[in-house]
Automatic annotation (TrEMBL):
Chain intervals for the UniProt region annotation (Disordered): 1-26
Coiled-coil segments on the chain, per record: none
Pfam families named among the record's database cross-references: Methyltransf_7
Name of the molecule in the record: Jasmonate O-methyltransferase
Keyword Protein biosynthesis in record: no
Bias (Polar residues): 15-26
SUPFAM superfamilies: S-adenosyl-L-methionine-dependent methyltransferases (SSF53335)
Species name: Triticum aestivum (Wheat)
Biological process, per Gene Ontology: methylation
GO molecular function: metal ion binding; S-adenosylmethionine-dependent methyltransferase activity
Keyword entries, A-Z: Magnesium, Metal-binding
Length: 251
């Protein structure tokens, strides 16, 4: 979703689409609700006077019903704050961002329906990697991102140079390289996350808010649930390679 490569969620609304297979991601978005509501409350209470408009963005929106989940929470929170303060509704500009190969046709249809129910909201899409500049300086009030920042800008260069895969199908080799691979990806994540924060710092208004959520773990040892998932994928890909369905060198 945020890699420069053409990696994206399955579009459309078929059985294998992201739209029909993203309930876990939606649950994580719902857990972000109090954080977004708190961010909006802090933003509006910190202002000497109520702003006339606000700009909200979801970075790595994907497609399907989840694409509008975070910005919907933000818009509702802004409306609620205005109502409690007895202020007229603010004009809100909502931007959805993802890579160019994302299913923006489906996103645009969702935005049209969303805008019909929110007359004071202007919407738009911003295709591009969030590891690059997306907005003008000091233009964003709130930026959100859920389930996206684990997508790196690229595979670690040191692993690509030495042709070391992230997950080797040979278990003995994989265990021997584990610390090397984990270390390389950890360094790449730190580099990318630092860049992400630096870019958003330029794009946010003074006092703007950034709310992000991403998966992580406390230990370097892979959690059992993640290990089982990877092993299942490897078994399937290995069988496909043995039958000539895919190139073995790409497994």
């Amino acid at each position: 979703m945020a890699s420069e490569q053409t990696v994206h969620m399955n579009g459309g609304q078929g059985d294998t689409s992201y739209a029909r297979n993203s309930s876990l991601q939606n649950a994580e978005q719902n857990r972000m609700r109090p954080l977004i509501e708190e961010a909006i409350a802090d933003l509006l209470s910190a202002s000497a006077s109520m702003p006339r408009s606000m700009v909200v963005a979801d970075l790595g929106c994907s497609s399907g019903p989840n694409a509008l989940a975070l910005v919907s929470i933000a818009v509702d929170a802004i409306r609620g704050q205005c109502f409690r303060s007895r202020q007229p509704p603010l004009e809100v500009c909502v931007f959805l961002n993802d890579l160019p190969d994302n299913d923006f046709n489906m996103v645009m249809k969702s935005l049209v329906a969303f805008q019909q129910g929110h007359r004071s909201v202007v919407t738009g899409v911003i295709p591009g990697s969030f590891y690059g500049r997306l907005f003008t300086t000091g233009s964003l009030h709130l930026a959100c991102s859920a389930n996206s920042l684990h997508w790196l800008s690229e595979a670690p260069e040191e692993l690509r140079r030495n042709k070391i895969p992230a997950y080797d199908i040979d278990e003995h080799v994989r265990r021997g390289r584990r610390r090397v691979v984990i270390g390389a990806y950890a360094r790449q994540f730190r580099k990318d996350f630092k860049l992400f924060l630096e870019l958003r710092a330029k794009e946010l208004v003074a006092g703007g808010r950034l709310v992000v959520s991403l998966a992580g773990r406390r230990s370097e040892e892979p959690a059992a649930e993640f290990t089982h998932a990877w092993e299942s994928v490897v078994l399937i890909l290995s069988e496909m390679a043995s039958k000539g369905v895919i190139n073995k060198s790409k497994v």
